[in-house]
Amino acid sequence: MSGSLVCVGTGMTLGAHISPISQSHIEQADIVFSLMANGFAQKWLEGMNADVRCLQGFYQEGKNRNITYNEMVEAILSEVCNGKKVVAAFYGHPGVFACVAHRAIKKAKLDDFPASMEPGISAEDCLYADLGIDPGKTGCMHYETSQFMFYKRNIDTSAHLILWQVALAGDKSLGKFSTGKAYRQVLVDLLLEHYPRDHEVILYQAKGIAIEPMREDKILLTELVDADLLMQTTLVIPPCSVMQANEELLAKLAKIDKQEERNKNRPALTLVL
Amino acid sequence: MSKVIEVLMQMASNAEMSNTKSLAEMLSNANLTKAQELAIQTKDMDALKVATYNLPEIRCYPILLPDDKSEEVSTLINRTVANF
């Protein structure tokens, strides 16, 4: 029997966000590996399949996450190699701001096993709905917070800036569950190069179960240093400037418009032989 | 599946549950313990955790690494290059 792997997303809110195909994969799998956001979701998953194996045991404070994730991938792939129909279920979307599913699928494909991903409703999807943000309105940039700090990025203050995993800001060890005020101050200083001190930002968390409220705490940018941040907290920075028209490009487009208009009004020529 | 989970699923997936009366009716028929029912009514997540036995412990969340230089990716690239 040939093994296979499907990585599925269960969505953010227990019972509300899972797609029919993801649920079906979970129910029909030989083995389900899981990384859920709360104990209720883990229990819910365990009710869908008799062999659900929680991957939480691989986590350890101080242990490099790269090692943890590779161990998770190995655990998943070893059962695929044993010929099992394996499903790896992740909360939210399995391929958004999470590397285990991507790594596992790549490795399975390298070993010639069928492997695919089914999307789930992500924290990003919930954020747009809960906070009433349309990413198409003035644009929206998303960064992993530490990566945003480690590399020089171009910040467009006329678009929304969304920083994920802000509780881990500046962690180079990849082993912490949160970083402290000194790290956050570095982030705030970086942001203050582009945003005013009194700029209002939002700390957001999607709800995990029906009775849990979503988090939408509005604070000043400078208050971020002392804010209560959890691993699932996202920092949303609304625009602080208006979009500037690109006059040069608009002139080029106007020229093309004029040319097209002239071509339209030109009398049709008939070739007479 | 545990009754608490069934109730949470119902609340999350049935639009009718936004109606206070329907929710109260569902809760009273769900055979929950008094503590569980009260925790759900008052939306007290911590109390519900305490009232729900054998709840698995969730220590950490899968996240993206700032520098994702996984061995698998480089292996894939090397293999692709070797195939040319």
TrEMBL record, chain A:
Listed Pfam families: TP_methylase (PF00590)
Xref: SUPFAM superfamilies: Tetrapyrrole methylase
All copies of domain Tetrapyrrole methylase, residue ranges: 5-210
A GO term, aspect molecular function: methyltransferase activity
Protein's name in the database: Tetrapyrrole methylase domain-containing protein
Source organism: Colwellia demingiae
UniProtKB/TrEMBL annotation, chain B:
Protein name per Swiss-Prot or TrEMBL: Uncharacterized protein
Taxonomic source organism: Colwellia demingiae
